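step=predict obj=histidine kinase n=181
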Amino acid sequence: MATLTQRNHPDPAEFQKVLGARLVMMKRAQGLAMTALQTDLADLMKEILAPYTADHLVQISGPAFTLIGEAASAIALVTHELATNATKYGALSRLGGELEVSWSILPSQANPKEFEFRFVWLERNGPAVIPPSRRGYGTVMMNGTVRNSFGGSVAFDYDPKGLKCEISAPLTSRLGHIATS
């Protein structure tokens, strides 16, 4: 993150200001996920991705959804890992890069009487995506975290036009619930 910030903000005073703001936002997002019994998913995404909105188009959308503590922490960790990789290799590594984060609640394909949570991370206008030659720590960590926290799975699509990561999970009390007013 520091390298990207320095690349886009070479003036030392501006660099310090922007990097400081990004670090504060990361700390706030992690604190929100780690301490709250329940966390609004949209608020969590806005907190985690706020450091990148100054230099990139970041779109966040989905129905009102409340994550339970451990699920919020898992989603925060995965989102942070995706954002870190996007700043190194993907759409957040260059000006003009775009990121769309969305989620939905859909009928389960296995049982239409049950529902499934789907979270999608989609990058655009970054460098051409090259599939990794091996599964790295980040991929293993994301899969394990999502599986162990709320019974979900993670899938990647390494489209040359932009990385797509999709998290799917049964809509259960381990994950969260649709927020009601």
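step=describe
The two ends are 37 Å apart (CA to CA).
step=end
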